[in-house]
């Protein structure tokens, strides 16, 4: 009994104590806070400020308030064409990656042990290879004198090279390759939480494979589909490396246009306004998509 | 309802119009899986193949095995310089972001009471904003500060900014799974706070710190958008050098460089596997 009474520390007391007093622990947050405040919050704030300034050729901008940059972004049909292309490509990549990733995720979620580990490794390993290297691999394959065109020509199937690169197709393939692992892993995560017995129950109650899938598995996996599609769409809209490497500056997307405006035309106010409009548009698209998906999911739960 | 179900269960169902025999269906499913896995691994296999191919261009069939492109890489000044620079930048980035991220994680899990969720969102926010826009914002800001666009410090800060969230996430995850009674035991047995931290806490959260550090290094080593915008004359990381090279030539030297980078990534994965297990790689992708 004595030994039990001896420790003065009550369970959880340490935790409470460390949380309550000791203002000096706040020092631990200081480096991270300074970094994020001065090199993340302030730069984005400065970007907003610059977007309302007036462009001047000699010194990038002068401190005169104007709404001209936003007017230019919103009224110029070329900008809308680029934005439309960017969002359209991102949507197509998202849908195709969902269609391809779903069977892989389903299979991965149902695999066990070492086999699952190996498959997981095959999906994760491309993530560890840099984006330039992966694009280079696609260049070797898709170029006019690349592997695919050469092989098809040697086999006599085509006599003119297929246009596989420096167009939307090449960019789409590259984006798909980069973002598929995210879709696969997110959907696998949800599918793993679905009890495999549910499928057996549905089948034994007479549902065919298609009905089992569309009435049981698919609705239950919607949260994963939702998260995966958002993850891929957000990244595809703001992708930069793939569109310049596999689009060869012949496919201009919104992020490329922003960068060109900064480092080629030196029009920082316009570039800032473009960046912010792009950002707000993606948030808006996600907001609408989120509304639709929650309604869909609620409809299924009811 | 129940009658219908039991009735349907007892009789064989009419086959749907598109019915495919079960074995053919399994085969089709397996074949499409193989194609998708092949698609995922193809470009990487091709790059490695091009690096060890003897020919001037990667042709089909391959022209035999050779290490000449690796020799070409080691003789090439710009590539070796960029490689060494990326290693140094990666090391310095990893060191800084591991320290900053671990401290912030310890504060958040152990000491933050109010605003904890807001603080967590704040810490991961650099991951939620597109790296290319963050790069543009930093570039304009650096000019505004009078630092100019190509300084080493500016590039390093950009890299630390986008790697800190990974360390933060990895360490908070291990801290939440941490059994605090171990610390309480150490304290009640008379260990000082510092001693408890170094002898009890640190060894247990080591795995999280380690995997956070590994990710910092890989993200920094492969970083493209931030590096492209913030690079300077003497500060050109490897992916940027590779990108510049590929604009003019497809010669397999680039493949040799890429293969060495891939080998580095493989080594990093093996080390991670060895120390903390592959599962720790999972959280990053499912963020």
Largest interface (CB < 8 Å): A-B, 93 and 94 residues
Distance between the termini of chain A: 56 Å
What profile does the largest beta sheet of chain B have? none
> In whole angstroms, how far apart are the ends of chain B?
43 Å
CATH topology of the domain at 78-249 and 262-285 in chain B: MetI-like fold
Shape of chain B: globular
CATH superfamily of the domain at 78-249 and 262-285 in chain B: MetI-like
Explain this structure:
The complex is a heterodimer of chains A (302) and B (287). With 302 residues, chain A is an all-alpha fold. Chain A has a single domain (68-301), classed as Orthogonal Bundle (MetI-like fold). Helix content of chain A is 74%, strand content 2%. Chain A has helices at residues 2-5, 13-20, 30-51, 68-75, 77-110, 113-124, 131-142, 147-154, 168-192, 196-204, 209-237, 241-247, 254-263, 268-301, and strands at residues 54-56, 60-62. The longest helix of chain A has 34 residues, at 77-110. Chain A is globular and about 75 Å long. Mean pLDDT of chain A is 87; it is low at 1-8. By secondary structure, chain B is mainly α. Chain B has a domain at 78-249 and 262-285: MetI-like (MetI-like fold, Orthogonal Bundle), CATH 1.10.3720. Chain B is built from 13 helices and no strands. Chain B starts with a helix and ends with a helix. Classes of the chains: A mainly alpha (302), B mainly alpha (287). Chains A and B meet through helix 2, helix 3, helix 5, helix 6 and helix 7 of A and helix 1, helix 2, helix 4, helix 5 and helix 6 of B.
